[in-house]
């Protein structure tokens, strides 16, 4: 349901529906997280294994994999443009420096060779041309090396499979000759097995036909692509299609805002005086209603008379119970279910969806824009009307007070008080001036801000733990595999735009730590900072340099938020015993600034996520490390199936389709010749 909802939000071209679709999507997300928390309390683990549940609902792990998040927090356009210009400028400087270095090297190598001096020193000059192997580019050499590795891997697999098959066949023959082979199953058992296989295949092909039908429909609507020579090509084309659709949505949104603002200005110009008079009459009628009902004038709320028109002020006879009613309403709003959001959507949009026009499916509805424009004009006019009505209310209250005094009666007192809204601490506004631009440029040049390759959460590939459910049922420990890690990391991707977060990734080399961090930063379009103890050596280990560095990092991260700060080799900062080879590193002062001072400088409202990574946690003091990073994620090692999948995808990306087909034809031809021989 979540994947279908987020696809609807991404493919939607009706600008005015976006708010309702987002509310439904957020309700679905909250329900998913609520269920996850219930399962976490029930099972005592942050990871859930969904093997048998998928079988019951006829789904696969690809159907339930959540790899996308709703609309992310974006930085202002001028800051994004400035950041791209800074990266481009630094890249150009590095290229110029590299060209100058290469030019200097060529000048040194092109010095004339004095052959007579070389002979006297016992040296001989050779005019031999460099070998062909030296002329091969390094990238091509690495490609050939990887291809040779894959060929050796495939040959080994085939030999092992052939040897195992030969061994099992021989054992079966021996058992058959000695009379130890199990007899064939009874006919009724074989019939039941065949019926079960028929049932499973019927369900499978039914689901396959439905999926193909949906895919063809989406292809006709321009939402998806079904047929492509390679799955990777299909994914790339689908992403291009989604980008074009998002550009079309932005175009419709711009037209929608222009049209709405135009209607608002026209209505303000023509109807302002009449509207003010109507609002005054309505407020006076409200005063009269209160006076006739309870002989009392209710104060105008601080937010103005707009609260009256919205129905937020209680009725005269119920005003004593206002606090209780508001508390119940607040509690009821907290417990809204996804169905409530869906019902509200139907209530708001069914009247428009019955129109058979493309104006409802795309762009915007003029009638809704007109109503919004009238509402905006009323909200702008209300403060002027409220000020006049407050003066009128003071006169009415004074007259009412005199009447009660003349009649020697006690004037009623308003005992109810509207609940005060909780003040949310606002994060300090980050300035983006020339000083911050210079800081960003210095950090990029020094390697503390990285220009990383954009990745998706799907790039952290791996299989689920299908046996985890059985192990947990037997009260045995079950470790999460890459699929469970990916689902858990989806929640962490959502938390980037929810304030300051910190976590620790622990795993061996080549376990996917960098892929997870790049995926989290790419999904949220965050700027990636990297702090490494090995990058601050020599004079950079001084307290003044580290203090200035941490201040620059936090200032730039706050100006460019959402931001991600990665601390590499964090176990070195928490060593229980410093190794002799690293005794010259002042790790204590680095820890003070990279961890303690950094966390104290970041505010809770800043959208900054700090991720520490380590490979040898047993070398660190566990209590101190967990105190600074209470949330820890253990990553599994790369297994055989994962290596095969990585190599397969690399081949699909690197080798052309024609080459793959040619190799397949050669393999089939060789197998046919062997069978004939």
Automatic annotation (TrEMBL):
Question: ATPase AAA-type core domain location, by residue?
Answer: 503-633
Q: Which portions of this protein are annotated as coiled-coil regions?
A: 382-410
Keywords in alphabetical order, please: Coiled coil
Q: Which InterPro entries match?
A: ATPase_AAA_core, N-DRC_Component, P-loop_NTPase
Give an example GO molecular function. ATP binding
Gene3D superfamilies with a match to the protein in the record: P-loop containing nucleotide triphosphate hydrolases
Q: Name one Pfam family in it.
A: AAA
Q: Where is this region: Disordered?
A: 102-137
PANTHER family, alphabetized? GH08353P, IQ MOTIF CONTAINING WITH AAA DOMAIN 1
Protein name as it appears in the record:
ATPase AAA-type core domain-containing protein
In the record, what lineage is assigned to the organism producing the protein? Eukaryota, Metazoa, Ecdysozoa, Arthropoda, Hexapoda
């Amino acid at each position: 349901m979540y994947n279908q909802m987020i696809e609807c939000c991404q493919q939607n071209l009706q600008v005015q529906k976006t708010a309702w679709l987002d509310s439904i999507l957020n309700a679905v997300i909250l329900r998913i997280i609520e269920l996850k928390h219930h399962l976490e309390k029930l099972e005592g683990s942050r990871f859930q294994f969904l093997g048998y549940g998928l079988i019951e609902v006829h789904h696969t792990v690809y159907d339930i994999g959540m790899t996308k998040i709703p609309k992310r927090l974006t930085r202002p356009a001028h800051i994004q443009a400035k950041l791209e210009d800074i990266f481009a400028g630094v890249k150009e400087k590095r290229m110029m420096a590299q060209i100058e270095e290469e030019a200097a090297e060529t000048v040194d190598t092109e010095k004339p060779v004095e052959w007579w001096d070389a002979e006297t020193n016992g040296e001989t000059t050779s005019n031999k041309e460099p070998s062909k192997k030296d002329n091969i580019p390094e990238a091509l050499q690495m490609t050939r090396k990887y291809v040779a590795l894959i060929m050796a891997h495939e040959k080994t697999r085939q030999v092992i499979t052939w040897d195992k098959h030969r061994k099992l066949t021989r054992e079966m023959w021996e058992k058959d000759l000695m009379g130890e082979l199990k007899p064939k199953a009874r006919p009724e058992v074989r019939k039941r097995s065949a019926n079960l296989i028929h049932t499973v295949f019927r369900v499978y092909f039914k689901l396959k036909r439905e999926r193909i039908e949906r895919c063809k429909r989406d292809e006709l609507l321009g939402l998806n692509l079904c047929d492509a020579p390679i799955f990777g090509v299909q994914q790339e084309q689908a992403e291009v299609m989604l980008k074009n659709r998002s550009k079309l949505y932005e175009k419709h949104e711009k037209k929608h805002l222009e049209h709405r603002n135009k209607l608002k200005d026209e209505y303000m110009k023509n109807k302002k005086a009449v509207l003010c008079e109507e609002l005054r009459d309505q407020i006076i009628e409200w005063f009269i209603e209160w006076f006739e009902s309870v002989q009392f004038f209710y104060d105008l709320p601080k937010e103005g008379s707009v609260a009256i028109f919205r129905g937020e002020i209680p009725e005269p006879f119920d005003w004593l119970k206002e606090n209780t009613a508001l508390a119940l309403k607040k509690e009821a709003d907290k417990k809204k279910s996804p169905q409530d959001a869906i019902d509200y959507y139907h209530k708001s949009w069914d009247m428009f969806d019955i129109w058979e026009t493309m104006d409802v499916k795309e762009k915007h509805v003029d009638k809704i824009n007109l109503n919004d424009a009238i509402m905006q004009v009323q909200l702008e006019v209300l403060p002027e009307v409220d000020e006049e009505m407050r003066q009128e209310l003071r006169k009415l209250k004074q007259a009412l007070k005199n009447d009660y005094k003349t009649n020697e009666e006690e004037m009623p007192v308003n005992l109810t008080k509207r609940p005060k809204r909780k003040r949310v601490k606002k994060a300090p506004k980050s300035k983006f001036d020339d000083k911050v631009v210079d800081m960003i440029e210095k950090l990029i040049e020094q390697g503390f801000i990285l220009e990383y390759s954009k990745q998706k959460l799907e790039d952290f590939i791996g299989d689920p733990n299908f046996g985890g459910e059985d192990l947990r049922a037997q009260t045995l420990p079950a470790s999460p595999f890459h699929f469970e890690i990916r689902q858990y990391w989806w929640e962490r991707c959502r938390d980037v735009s929810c304030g300051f977060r910190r976590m620790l990734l622990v795993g061996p080399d080549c376990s996917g730590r960098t892929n997870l961090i790049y995926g989290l930063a790419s999904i949220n379009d965050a700027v990636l900072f990297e702090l490494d103890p090995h990058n601050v050596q020599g004079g950079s280990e001084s307290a003044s340099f580290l203090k200035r560095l941490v201040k620059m990092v936090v200032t730039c991260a706050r100006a460019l938020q959402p931001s991600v700060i990665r601390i590499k080799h964090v176990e070195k900062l928490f060593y229980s015993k410093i190794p002799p080879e690293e005794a010259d590193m002042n790790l204590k002062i680095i820890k003070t600034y990279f961890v303690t001072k950094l966390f104290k400088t970041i505010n809770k409202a800043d959208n900054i996520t700090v991720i520490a990574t380590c490979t040898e946690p047993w070398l660190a003091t566990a209590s101190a490390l967990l105190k600074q990073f209470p949330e820890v994620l253990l990553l599994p090692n790369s297994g055989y199936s994962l290596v095969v999948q990585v190599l397969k995808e690399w081949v699909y990306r690197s080798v052309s389709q024609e080459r793959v087909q040619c190799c397949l034809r050669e393999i089939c031809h060789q197998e046919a010749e062997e069978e004939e021989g």
